[in-house]
Amino acid sequence: MAEPTLWEPVPRSRTYELVLARIEEQILAGKLRVGDRLPPERELVELLEVSRAAIREALRVLEAQGVLRARVGTGPDSGSVIAAMPSAGLTQLLRLHIALANFPVKDVVEARAALERSSARLAADQATEADLDRMAECLAHMDVPEVSREEFNDHDTRFHVAIAEAGGNRLVTDLTVAVRNAVRHTLMTAFHRLDDWEAERDRLRAEHHAIHDAIAAGDAERAGDLVESHIHRFHHDVVRTVLQSPEGTSAQSAIWDGPPRER
Amino acid sequence: MAEPTLWEPVPRSRTYELVLARIEEQILAGKLRVGDRLPPERELVELLEVSRAAIREALRVLEAQGVLRARVGTGPDSGSVIAAMPSAGLTQLLRLHIALANFPVKDVVEARAALERSSARLAADQATEADLDRMAECLAHMDVPEVSREEFNDHDTRFHVAIAEAGGNRLVTDLTVAVRNAVRHTLMTAFHRLDDWEAERDRLRAEHHAIHDAIAAGDAERAGDLVESHIHRFHHDVVRTVLQSPEGTSAQSAIWDGPPRER
DNA sequence: TTTCTTGTTTGGTCCGACCAAGCAATGGGC
DNA sequence: GCCCATTGCTTGGTCGGACCAAACAAGAAA
Q: B144 falls in which pLDDT band (50, 70, 90)?
């Protein structure tokens, strides 16, 4: 039971962390809700009896988490206001950690597959006509005969986001968007290095239409399975192959597979 | 195509955001890796020609994201060091946004189910003997006849985390831990208000053992399905029922179901 | 009534100063 | 010659004060 990792921390709290804790208390307790305004920074200085720098550092953290939105001036929209923009913060966080190779691409793909399978199942159950129309519009853009790779990739993303939004689960949607954004660059690189672009394009078109049809038909089981295998196949055929081809050094394979498991 | 939301932003960059961008550049470009040290704050002031306050605000954000770890002194471990502790930052972010009801509990449950299904499938494919032993140990703790609810919940969490770790996917593991931590309080509350604790406890025990056995047998399909239905059933039977019972006001049902969908 | 000016509030930025935690080099005592 | 306390330097942590610019509100001037 004496796990060494459990005895490590002992974090001496810095002032800004205490400020953060005070504000979080009120959020967790429901006393601060979306739209509410925090007292002005100078007032918080007096209330909490710390320097403005400490206050501001805490506010910066909340802002980065998408919980706060600060504006100057005196209007009704000014000051530090509790907001709700989780996807930006999530995207940023995941981007950095993926870049630090904490999360190998393989893991990200797996997470995407899991999340989007869930989205597709939910979407099949409760997508509205408007939702289906939005998906169909994305498909139409990708079906343009001479569509460019950028255009295609752009609407590919929109298509998957549309599915997530149709599912109505905001957490899953935001996670999906964040994960997708986080690997956007990698995806585009793979897309450009593609040898047989036309074949892959046609394959993706067919898969997308199949997914759309399953959702439209309300077949959750099939929609989920199709999305899952769609993501797995694409990353297996395209990303892995392309990233490991000519310039495929050991460094890149590490990006894919991650460091060996150690215990 | 003229979506109104796309014309809103125009974010005037603040100094700390520029500093943040510079540091992120280097991380994204792979020039800063885990373990590397940033220049001292006072040096960054000269390099970037901004105030120390701006530097520090940027560093605070990175720290909150689990990308940085700062220590005073001159030793080899001192200064601002690139680190990799994503789950803490994720947990914090999710906790706040769940509290702000951006993410209704229902959505969180769905995300958990999706992620842990994926974990279980991976675990069934590649769990080692050591992994299985750790799971079994958690089960043993939960099987103690007079186990307390706290003990049970504690090892319940460990069991699920053990599965995620056995899956070997760090992103999914960290997301799982973060999501679980974020709803820990809600979970414990539901656990305590439980009417027929013994019946629920026995049901959970049986489900846990079935999951363990499926993973041990290498049956990915079954393991995944069992975990998924396990989570769905528990939250449907316990959390939803309990949280909406006596004190079940409209506010709490909003926490569960979230605000009505508007388009 | 309308328009311009002025003042106030608010976040944004910077500077300079001091503190305490650590480590490293120094030097006396054995 | 070796050990250990002292001293000094580097580093993040904290603070107070000052000034800027954006944004709005109120009052003055047309």
A: very high
The pLDDT confidence band at residue A11, using thresholds 50, 70 and 90, is: low
Tell me which fold the domain B87-257 belongs to. Answer: Four Helix Bundle (Hemerythrin (Met), subunit A) (1.20.120)
Closest residue of B to A57, CA-based? B57
Query: Is the alpha carbon torsion for B203, B206, B212, B217 positive or negative?
Result: negative
CATH class of A88-257: mainly alpha
Evaluate if residue A108 carries a pLDDT over 70: yes
Residue A250 token pair: 């050991």
Q: Reply yes or no on whether the pLDDT at B175 is more than 60.
A: yes
Question: What does the alpha-carbon distance between residue A11 and residue A62 come to, in Å, rounded to a whole number?
Answer: 20
Residues B51-98: tens digit of each pLDDT = 999 999 999 999 999 999 999 998 888 999 999 999 999 999 999 998
Tell me the H-state helices in B36-169.
41-48, 52-64, 86-99, 105-126, 129-143, 149-167
Cα B169 from chain centroid? 13
Q: In chain B, which residues have their Cβ closer than 8 Å to the Cβ of A220?
A: none
Nearest chain A residue to B11, by CA:
A71
Interchain contact B120–A (C-beta under 8 A): no
CB B141 within 8 A of CB B151: yes
Angstrom distance (rounded) from CA B17 to CA B50: 12
- The nucleotide closest to A77 (CA, C1' atoms): D23
Q: Would you state the pLDDT for residue B104? A: 83
State yes or no: pLDDT of B257 exceeds 70. Answer: no
Q: What is the distance between the alpha carbons of residues B100 and A182, in angstroms, rounded to a whole number?
A: 25
**Confidence band (pLDDT; 50, 70, 90) for A257?**
low
Whether domain A9-82 has CATH 1.10.10.10? yes
**Distance in angstroms (rounded) separating the CA atoms of residues B235 and A245:** 46
Residue B23 CA distance to nucleotide D18 C1' (Å):
29
Report d(CA A86, CA B221) in Å as an integer.
33
CA angle B120, B187, B204 (to 5 degrees): 50
Q: Closest by alpha carbon to A245, among A237, A198, A233?
A: A237
Fold of the CATH domain B14-82: Arc Repressor Mutant, subunit A (1.10.10)
Q: Which residue out of A3, A23, A96, A137 would a mutagenesis test of the B interface target, given it has the greatest number of B Cβ atoms within 10 Å? A: A96
State how far the Cα of A196 lies from the Cα of A93, in Å rounded to an integer.
Answer: 34
Domains B14-82 and B87-257 share a fold: no
Q: In terms of Cα–Cα distance, which of B31, B44, B32, B40 is closest to B70?
A: B40
Report pLDDT for A196. 87
Spell out the domain ranges in chain A.
Answer: 9-82, 88-257
- CB neighbour class for A34 (10 Å; exposed up to 12, middle 13-18, buried from 19): middle
* Residues of B in Cβ contact (< 8 Å) with A108: 171
